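Reviewer 2 asked us to include a model.

Predict the structure of this chain.
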Amino acid sequence: MPAPVQVAFKRIGEPVVGQNGYLGFLKGKTEVHKAGSRPGNAKALDSDILVEHNVEIVVRDGARLYVDMFRPADSDEKIPAILSWSFYGKNGLEKFEGLDPAHWCPHGYAIISVDSRGAGSSDGQISVMGTQDAEDGYDVVEAIAKMDWCNGSIGMAGNSALAISQ
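Predicted model (structure tokens):
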């Protein structure tokens, strides 16, 4: 019988808001990033962006998925949405390998950043390349299309895992 493998283990503490970039669960928080501001030390924004954090979408089996929505702050027109779907997390202006709202919102698009099942504060277990991801994706697209600001046109974009989820 081979010798047991020794594994290095270090216990870590609970996340603390304000440490290491952790923002906490901002359910229902709405804010406007002003033109010229630099959220997350990014390039200065060309226009105001309305941000809604952790909007809850309940899918067909009752699981709650959370999305961040970025929209042009100065538009009363219904606009199309582009959805970025992954398990990478969604804190901040950009999602890893997703679209940059600072570019798309001034062009009249909403960017929807989804924490898929089991990611971030969304319910359930992470599922990759399975029917669960497909069903959840369908339900989220349908929910976004019905929102009062959306014109019903929804696209998906991203590379790597974000492309696989499409």
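Residues 30-164 form a domain with the Rossmann fold fold (CATH 3.40.50.1820). The chain has one domain: 30-164. We have added this to the supplementary material.
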